[in-house]
Amino acid sequence: MAQQRRMGGQPMFIMSEDSQRTQGRDAQSSNIMAGKAVAESVRTTLGPRGMDKMLVDSGGDVVITNDGATILNEMDIEHPAAQMIVEVADSQEEEVGDGTTTAAVLAGNLLGEAEDLIEQDVHATTIVEGYHEASEIALEAIAEQVNEADVDDEILRQVAESSMTGKGTGGLTAESLAETVVEAIRHVDTDEGVARDNITVHTQVGASSNATELVPGIIVDEDPVHDGMPSEVEDASIAILDVELGVRTGDVDAEYAIDSIDQLNAAIDAEEGELEGYAQTVAESGADVVFTTEDVNDRVANSLANEGILVFEGLGDSDARQVASATGARRIGDLEDLEEADFGSADRIHTQTFGDDDLAFVEGGAAAETVTVFVRGGTEHIVDELERAIGDALDVVATALESGEVVPGAGATEIAIADKIREEAAGIEGRKQLAVTAFADAVDIVPRTLAANTGRDPIDVLVDLRAAHESEGRAGLITKGDEVTIDDPFEYGVVDPADVKREAVESATEAATMIARIDDVIAAE
Ligand code: ADP
Ligand code: MG
After folding, report:
1. Which CATH entry fits the domain spanning 4-147+408-523: 3.40.50.1820, 1.10.560.10, 3.30.460.10, 1.10.10.10?
2. Could you give the angle at the alpha carbon of 53 between the alpha carbons of 51 and 58, nearest 5°?
3. In ligand 1, which atom is closest to the CA atom of 103?
4. Helices and strands: H and E segment counts in the chain
5. Which atom of ligand 1 is nearest to the CA of 165?
6. Which of 65, 101, 180, 293 is catalytic?
7. What CATH number has the domain spanning 217-246+258-363?
């Protein structure tokens, strides 16, 4: 539809004839519908009994996951308003690492409530004001729910376990994985805060997830260049080279004009001498372990194996950097500069074969307190989902440790938020009160969905939760094994970091109000 204005009787086109324009209620309702639909699509994955989704892309690649952010990103969403819900999940993932489904579902429900309000002729501006006011009350309610006890290792384990429950980990495993996660975080906890970047996650298919363990160092996908090399070196001196230990490729292509056998032998001797020279230089340098980003000639490898030196070749740049930062080694670009001063060190380097894969473990590196969660699982899909779950758990434990604030999970915090908003809404004048109350109704989606996903009637559960909240102050729908009960989540160790709830409220409010305020969509062809 072409947009035109008249100036002095002449039509003036201000937009391309091909652009699409939707205005007013139509624009609002189509945006709201798109946003709601996206949020709805992840609702069934929420909570310990949430279901997984299998996403198949056009190339046939399959991802099986329960993680809100992953699902929304794999879905290849195009509608701009729907895309904003995806951004809510993304920013939640980036800021606090968990609560992505909660944030997306909340944003969708805030939009649903906004739609009803618009139908009742409440103006978008009033909705936006009411939502902002309600979100402030929500933040106060979250503060009131924060634990009084110190966040100790036991609570951190609970935080980890709560974030992993229902993530394809199985009940028992979540418990032992939580242990590993807390151990990892404690390892990198310093006076300046949690050095989360010093924890890496390495996945390896081919064992039960119970075999997942913490490695005090880093793991690289490399095997020794020669079978005769040691598979373990203690107190290792480590050199990292960006040097090819062989006859340089340039020399091989060169043409030799050889007239006699003597000349040929001389050429061969020269080459062998050169190779021997490399091996000798390395052996004499005092390095026990060598990583090189280039290739190692077989003859050199053989000589180095005889010297008892462990050598890895063809290292990727990022692995080389990782080894350097863990061991304190400086990368060497020329064999002539091979000096002990540039070597790094580690307590132990060993290699191990897992099925078709060979891994090198660099433990107790001198330079950095890096640790690796070595994730095991039966299949590719299982380790991938475990990797995501453990990544989230590491993030939430770091968040909880840094802030020292956790709140009850299992819907209890949401019940408290909705309750406080309704209480304070009574004192708010005019139509804005409708918007504030609608916010409380939207927050109910979390306990309602937890109920629905455990096969309970959402209305009955909501009524019971409110009553229990009224009398006990904390009440959630707790799932432990096969049991589902309404009780104080703190008693059962179902806890979430307060920051996860804050971020969910803030990002969902922001997205919902932004979408509700739009009443004109102009799209270029
Ligand atoms: P999100 O992507 O929002 O983190 P999850 O599927 O991880 O979604 O579900 C998180 C919700 O599940 C939180 O509200 C959390 O308190 C709740 N939860 C975690 N463990 C339990 C449990 N054992 N019983 C009941 N609710 C739980
Ligand atoms: Mg979660």
Report:
1. 1.10.560.10
2. 175
3. 3
4. 18, 22
5. 20
6. 101
7. 3.50.7.10
